[in-house]
From TrEMBL:
<keyword id="KW-0472">Membrane</keyword>
<dbReference type="InterPro" id="IPR036942">
    <property type="entry name" value="Beta-barrel_TonB_sf"/>
</dbReference>
<protein>
    <submittedName>
        <fullName>TonB-dependent receptor</fullName>
    </submittedName>
</protein>
<feature type="signal peptide">
    <location>
        <begin position="1"/>
        <end position="36"/>
    </location>
</feature>
<feature type="domain" description="TonB-dependent receptor plug">
    <location>
        <begin position="79"/>
        <end position="179"/>
    </location>
</feature>
<dbReference type="Pfam" id="PF07715">
    <property type="entry name" value="Plug"/>
</dbReference>
<keyword id="KW-0998">Cell outer membrane</keyword>
<keyword id="KW-0675">Receptor</keyword>
<dbReference type="InterPro" id="IPR010104">
    <property type="entry name" value="TonB_rcpt_bac"/>
</dbReference>
<dbReference type="InterPro" id="IPR012910">
    <property type="entry name" value="Plug_dom"/>
</dbReference>
<dbReference type="InterPro" id="IPR037066">
    <property type="entry name" value="Plug_dom_sf"/>
</dbReference>
<dbReference type="GO" id="GO:0009279">
    <property type="term" value="C:cell outer membrane"/>
</dbReference>
<keyword id="KW-0732">Signal</keyword>
Length: 946
């Protein structure tokens, strides 16, 4: 740690926490009261969240508000009463979060940002740490994900199903699976809180501001939802049911640069480009059900069930232009400040792409919570849950060009740099001419590891299963006559298993040959069938290309192409399973009393976490034209101790100081824990001398022995609540990070067991030179550093200023984050944390009164390192340019006394500034790699509440 205050605070915290667990007499010196849980983290949905605001209670009056103001008041109540540092989003009404999606709403909270993918907010960063550093809970239970790793893609959850969403930025002992950055807890409604029957129905239409960019796309979508809540048996049995159906289109233009080599003058020049237009359609159906039963004070049972199915279809059409890296002649027309602004390339053989991607996923979640009063003031809680996700992808690429391996007519292409960093690309060939263009491998890129193949397309078909079972039990009891109000002890067991399976295929024209190889007589091209050509033209005129060949890739796949299994080692080595068995025990003391005449709440506790993680997979090798696949498995066990303390002191009426100190951890990416390794053998290194870097042997893969990232966290928050609603808060935090995973690490490894794969004639040479000791490239826990920042939040109803402004209000936040992380592979330079924006700003201005509401939202984040899809859909990191996005909505709800009472209508506009998503490389904003423009989106909603 470079911060002396933080080092001192961390030492004092760990010392105090250990003493406090051993003796209550020292507890107040270390106390930090926490999230006063009556039972467990799985049952924290307090009645206060649905009641009148605490501000109104404190003023001795009842304040009845609805819509936006009700949402803000509920969120403020959750924040005020929690002893942990928390920010929340609450539903304006049943089944009505205040934004289009959960991620949209959460991205407005202080210190929370969202990365747009496919035009939607999906991945969240909390306090500068990316999605892999947080955890997501559903009703307090850890959830699996349909994504490749741990980070939850929030569009898998229909937002209408949740009453509120809490983001906990500090931790206590009973918060199982707390993240380093924070913990997002999605809370479903509780039917016994309503005491009456409620039925709601909503319909929403969607239109993209951009017309469909592909003839087989659409610009119109919809969302239909319904909710039913009722109580029976004298309000002892409650049922809540919800259904949702969504069809959401997205249209966007994509520009991608291959990179920027230098020309003979030392100027940067475009190496190649890949412009596309893309049309997406997300179809999702979801259902939830909750049965709540409380026949007496002695038993309270809640069963939650959630199911979500979604499929996303993507249609992409465009052209890859190999330029400098295509080895073609060119002439520089103009250059400026070390950058080629315009050039003309000749004999360019473009690769036309007609691609089709489809992802289907099913998400299941079941949780059953039971609370028993075993004696006066003593409760036993047991909670069982199951979370499961299945996902399959169908990623189809089809290629067309003028001839196989540059054998057809070449093109003359002029590029001119635009002011936004993209390049205008002006060809001379007609790329819609089926007489000129055919199904083929235009660049001759196909190679199966030993010989050329005719790669007229490629198919990736990965599938993932993620399964998590958990059982939790706890016992808590009251303490009388002491500042300690209660105690809680508990245990949790969870088993998570993620299976990743990959298959891929070379696609080549039918008609002869074997395995798509050129030597066997595989046809090098095939004509474009007229049946495959779609009505309508796909244009890339936003970059200067008048049109591209518009064909149905599924027709080509089913009727024109053969599929040959891709058995290269890099493809075979990806299949794996990762299993984590985790036992967690915890103990916690809660505080609730007076200290120095001030109200004091909090907790102090300790978690003990024992983990056994294992992986099954393979080791693959390619030598002398033969692929060898060997099974592999490994496991490791370890134990961690995680102390925590929280405290909330009401210094003045409605003025609180909250403090938190904890040690938390989050597990590495699951693909980093895999056992898989790709064995490389480079005969050219034989006899080069000692040292692992000169060995002919090398490994590249995962590391089952990885430990979790760890963090010592210090949190402080000052919160002032206004009597008439709203608050102002300032929070600071410091995180000392250790065991940070370095994905580029390498360690020496003895490859003696693999000497038999080398030719007999060179084995002695390898041994004599020490060449059997090579490098194993795998992730290691070799990094450390710190993260620190400050957040400021203002929620202000303008009626606090003057009654004349009743109905107007503002909610906004600003946060600044600084970090320094150094890795073992490069200890002299600090890395950029994925997902970290130095500055994040959010602002919402609203008006709501007598059923009418209007709101404008603005959110701004500075540049950050984002995860995007790279070559073959593999995740890669690039710098994302800072962006500012404006959304707005206006609506009206008919009031009591009207013949239309219960009816509401709303208009919404999203991304009204038409903000592009831009990535660049080498810290040079001129070197734009991705430029995606999603356009604006418009929604009209009609709802009715019975």
């Amino acid at each position: 740690m470079n911060n002396p205050f933080a080092r001192l605070a961390a030492r004092e915290f760990l010392s105090c926490s250990s003493r406090a667990v051993l003796g209550a007499s020292l507890a107040l010196t270390c106390a930090a009261p926490a999230f006063a849980q009556d039972t467990t983290a799985a049952d924290q949905n307090t009645t206060a969240q649905a009641d009148a605001t605490a501000q109104g209670d404190s003023a001795g009056q009842a304040i009845v508000v609805t819509g936006i103001r009700a949402s803000l008041d509920k969120s403020a109540e959750i924040k005020r009463t929690s002893t942990m540092i928390v920010d929340s989003v609450s539903a304006e009404d049943i089944g009505k979060l205040p934004d289009v999606s959960i991620a949209d709403s959460l991205a407005r909270l202080p210190g929370v940002t969202a990365q747009r993918l496919e035009g939607r907010d999906q991945r969240l960063s909390i306090r500068g740490l990316g999605p892999d550093f947080g955890t997501t809970l559903l009703n307090g239970r850890e959830q699996v994900t349909v994504g490749d790793n741990r980070g939850v893609e929030y569009d898998q959850y229909p937002s209408e199903f949740f009453q509120n969403v809490n983001v906990y930025k500090s931790a206590n002992a009973s918060l199982i699976a707390a993240g380093i950055s924070g913990t997002v807890d999605l809370r479903m409604l509780r039917p016994l809180d309503y005491h009456k029957r409620v039925v709601t129905a909503n319909a929403r239409g969607q239109m993209n501001g951009t017309d469909k960019l592909n003839p087989d796309g659409t610009r119109y979508g919809y969302r239909l939802t319904g909710t039913y809540i009722d109580q029976f048996a004298g309000d002892t049995l409650g049922i809540a049911l919800g259904v949702s159906a969504t069809s959401a289109p997205t249209q966007y233009t994509r520009y991608n640069a291959w990179g920027f080599p230098t020309d003979s003058n030392g100027d940067l020049i475009l190496g190649g480009a890949k412009p596309y237009v893309q049309s997406n359609l997300l179809d999702r159906i979801g259902a939830v059900g909750t049965i709540e039963y409380q026949p007496s004070e002695a038993w309270h049972s809640t069963l939650d069930v959630l199911y979500s199915h979604f499929s996303e279809t993507q249609r992409l059409r465009g052209i890859e232009f190999p330029l400098v890296w295509g080895g073609v002649p060119y002439t520089v027309n103009s250059a400026n400040d070390g950058f080629v602004e315009s050039a003309t390339f000749t004999d360019v053989h473009g690769v036309q792409r007609n691609d089709y991607n489809k992802r289907t996923a099913d998400n299941y979640s079941i949780g059953w919570n039971n609370v028993f009063e075993v004696a006066d003031g003593l409760h036993f809680t047991v909670d069982a849950s199951w979370s499961h996700a299945d996902r399959t992808d169908f990623l189809l690429e089809t290629y067309s060009g003028t001839g196989y391996n540059k054998s057809g007519p070449g093109d003359t292409v002029t590029i001119t740099r635009n002011s936004d960093g993209t390049f205008r690309i002006e060809p001379t060939l007609d790329y819609t001419d089926t007489g000129t263009f055919k199904i083929t491998d235009p660049q001759g890129w196909g190679y199966n590891g030993t010989q050329p193949v005719v790669q007229a397309g490629f198919l990736n078909r990965p599938s993932f299963k993620d399964d998590l079972k958990s059982l939790r039990a706890s016992l808590n009891g009251d303490i009388y006559g002491s500042v300690f109000s209660s105690w809680e002890v508990g245990a949790n067991y969870s088993r998570r298993k993620k299976t990743s399976a990959y298959t891929s295929y070379f696609l080549c024209p039918k008609g002869g040959g074997t395995d798509c190889t050129v030597a066997s007589g595989t046809p090098t091209s095939a004509p474009v069938p007229s049946e495959a050509v779609l009505n309508g033209t796909t244009q890339l005129n936003y970059l200067g290309v008048p049109g591209v060949l518009t064909i149905d890739p599924l027709y080509i796949y089913n009727n024109v192409l053969n599929a040959v299994y891709d058995n290269r080692p890099v493809s075979l080595v990806r299949d794996n399973t990762v299993t984590e068995n985790v036992w967690t025990g915890y103990a916690m003391l809660n505080l609730n009393g007076m200290a120095g005449g001030k109200k004091l709440k909090g907790s102090i506790g300790l978690q003990v976490v024992h983990t056994k993680q294992s992986s099954n997979g393979s080791i693959s090798n390619f030598s002398d034209g033969v692929v060898t696949v060997l099974p592999a498995s490994d496991s490791v066990s370890y134990t961690d101790f995680l102390p925590s303390a929280t405290m909330s002191v009401e210094l003045l009426p409605l003025t609180y100081v909250k403090m938190g100190a904890s040690q938390t951890m989050v597990r590495p990416r699951m693909d980093q824990e895999r056992v898989n390794r790709e064995l490389g053998i480079d005969p050219s290194n034989v006899g080069l001398g000692g040292g692992p870097q000169y060995s002919p042997f090398s490994f590249n893969g995962g590391n089952v022995n990885l430990r979790p990232y760890k963090s010592i966290n210090i949190d402080l928050s000052l919160e002032k609540y206004f009597a008439g609603g709203g608050y102002i808060a300032i929070a600071g935090y410091y995180k000392a990070l250790s065991d940070y995973v370095d994905s580029n690490a390498s360690v020496a490894y003895d490859f003696s067991d693999y000497l038999y794969l080398a030719p007999q004639a060179v084995r002695d040479t390898i041994i004599n030179s020490g060449g059997q000791i090579g490098l194993n490239k795998r992730p290691e826990n070799s990094g450390s550093g710190y993260l620190q920042g400050v957040e400021a939040t203002l929620s202000l109803p303008f009626s606090e200023i003057t009654p004349a402004l009743d109905g107007f209000g503002f909610f906004g936040s600003a946060s600044y984050t600084d970090s320094s992380i150094k890795l073992g592979s490069n200890p002299t330079e600090s890395i950029t944390l994925p997902g970290l924006s130095d500055w994040v700003l959010n602002a919402s201005a609203y008006y709501e009164k007598s059923g009418f509401q209007a709101r404008v939202n603005y959110r701004r984040r500075s540049s950050f390192l984002g995860e995007v899809a790279g070559l073959s859909a593999n995740p890669t990191f690039r710098t994302v340019r800072g962006e500012g996005i404006v959304d707005a909505q206006i609506g009206y709800e008919f009031q009591e006394g009207s013949s239309l009472a219960g009816l509401s209508i709303m208009l919404q506009g999203k991304n009204l500034t038409d903000q592009p998503f831009v990535t660049y490389q080498n810290d040079d904003e001129r070197q734009v790699i991705d430029y995606q423009r999603y356009g604006r989106e418009y929604y009209v909603s009609v709802g009715y509440k019975f």
